[in-house]
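User: We ran a pulldown and think these components assemble together. Before we commit to crystallization trials, I'd like a predicted model of the whole complex to look at. Sequences follow.
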Amino acid sequence: MIQSIQTIPGGTVTSPQGFLAGATSASIKPGTQRLDLAMLFSTAPCIAAGVFTRNRVAAAPVLLCREHLSEGKARAVVANSGFANACTGPEGLEDARETASLAAAKLGVPKTQVLVMSTGVIGVPLPMERIREGIKRLSLSPSGGNELAQAIITTDTRTKEIGLDFELGQTRATMGGVAKGAGMIHPDMATMLSIITTDARVDPAYLPQALVQAVSLSFNMISIDGDTSTNDTVLLLANGLAGNSPIEESSPHRQVFQEALNRACLYLAKEVARDGEGANCLIEVCVEGAASAEEARAAARTIVASPLVKCAVHGADPNWGRVLAALGRSGAQVDEGRLEVFVGDICVSTGGRPQPFDQDRARGLLQRPEVLLRVCLGLGDGEARAWGCDLTEEYVKINSAYTT
Amino acid sequence: MIQSIQTIPGGTVTSPQGFLAGATSASIKPGTQRLDLAMLFSTAPCIAAGVFTRNRVAAAPVLLCREHLSEGKARAVVANSGFANACTGPEGLEDARETASLAAAKLGVPKTQVLVMSTGVIGVPLPMERIREGIKRLSLSPSGGNELAQAIITTDTRTKEIGLDFELGQTRATMGGVAKGAGMIHPDMATMLSIITTDARVDPAYLPQALVQAVSLSFNMISIDGDTSTNDTVLLLANGLAGNSPIEESSPHRQVFQEALNRACLYLAKEVARDGEGANCLIEVCVEGAASAEEARAAARTIVASPLVKCAVHGADPNWGRVLAALGRSGAQVDEGRLEVFVGDICVSTGGRPQPFDQDRARGLLQRPEVLLRVCLGLGDGEARAWGCDLTEEYVKINSAYTT
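Assistant: Here's a predicted model for the assembly, 808 residues in total across the polymer chains.
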């Protein structure tokens, strides 16, 4: 725990110096009035990195971001909700390219330094006429982060935003972030849309590593439904306006920066899991004593993604057998005689056997807004945490009628 | 299609010669009156094979079956519902062993030739007093197959039974089967409880191979919820009373026997999928043109298990983008430009792009009791089919309150 990292009340993606944002209602889904088109802009050049879906059916904006990030530089991000611009063929890629070009012309920056993100229904071409008009109308301000956060959500019930500031020696720097989640979320990839900004100066060679580390502990450890999106994207933009000496692998302040980044990603990832489609609670699964860290990760992810575990939590049912069944198919080594399972602080099973416990108290713990399930394997030092949410009737309702 | 294989109306696990069965209500779950303890017995010695869960947390009856099948012989099976005798420690294995011994004493057969199956709640010791009494009370008859089928179901809404007869040269032989399914079902393993019986004479070296092939095309291609049980077991018992010359790898009649076995397993597996917890329909996913058969299997299984695809079918929503998103994370090679997606006979996407189609007709096809989704990859000869069911609010309700 690094004490100098502090949360900024009301902090968001425009909290760091030099970042502006804005959003508009472009009626991307016909008939809707909500904010659905947003832009983020840095007044100073940024170095940038991204982590993207590993789905082999990758959306056009993902393809364009990968192309534009090949030089590791960016000035702006255009994001829309409503349609995902996925499974839209070569025309979809042209649409993404045109979106970037229009934003570049408006902002006076090279088009290859504009990144694009889309989320929403797959397989519908973007309504470019309305996007062209929307981009014209967009206006930017240093307090526009919340508007951007609103514009990118879909079935989310609330925005996900964070701001942190931290000391890099004598310099104070800031980091901001937004994310959207809700459905088609699973740890097999970067997981949804998120933008992290910072005014810290960071060495371009180090930035992508820092992002990969933070994502592996956060966005890649959440699951809402086991489905992985064609559009998952996490972007990190650093404009250097804080004026610190550049952070690189060997910097004395690397650890502070990495922890701020980890903390921002973890906060946003947990907010995404907590606000999963139809969810009533956040589930945290902690696996300890696994034979390796990799096995601990596999076990934690499998347990938190199990529909039966998620239903049991929804029903406040301390049905720990489902936790062990999920553990058993995770690929992690298991010695039943050494197992311990906890609901919150209550041990419900030891040595692979039932353990008498206070059912009412366990039910009470499962009805809290944050539920902790802990499994100790007793085999080694591997530890991991994963996050998800309960599975409710509402999830099914939302997803039975999404395009209609 | 082998013409000589015919379905026996009302056929079940006691249809083949020499197989008797019976069931009783042992109140294994206190207060219940339903049939919950059953026995199958062959009047003649059988060769036997089994396919079991690959979950590392395997239930006591699975451990005992593996031990007893090491010689490939069996005379009887005892099965119970209510409690799964999983995560019950060494005492659970002793309980399974005692169950087998009591049945062996009653039937006058070696205890190592009695197999045991359990299904139900994990982590609760079997009520051995009631099981001892139940075994005493059990009576067997050549028409007892349906009682056995009733006794092994849990959240199933109906029994799954089949009988087939077929010609092995001049001899007519019979095969019967039962299964139970409903929840915790996923193709990572043998999938639930099923017993297949036959009076055909089969070479002991060939029997396990035949079962593995049939299971790989049937039980291992269904998914209800992606969760894999600690108790999944498929048993095959052959008592040879038909008197045919033994079927082995090189027999002229091997193909007839294998197809009868495939057909019995496939029928039961599809019945299990169709009757998934809360399900309204059977979903069949057909993948064609994959780079390999293995990739086709992975793609079909991933698509049929996707919660978002299952919800879309439930909502009669031809949201084919979810099919492609699932395909993209399945590990199968994909060239978006060559893809075609069909709902029933309607092409809804070609070349990774939307394709105009009759929405109302597609919705109509998605409201039928059997829904076909077909994906053509255009890359090779790999083909596979997988089966599942829609995801409904009812699934969540059932699984939020299972132990309570």
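Chain B touches chain A through 69 residues (CB under 8 Å). That may be worth checking against your pulldown data before setting up trials.

User: Thanks, that helps.
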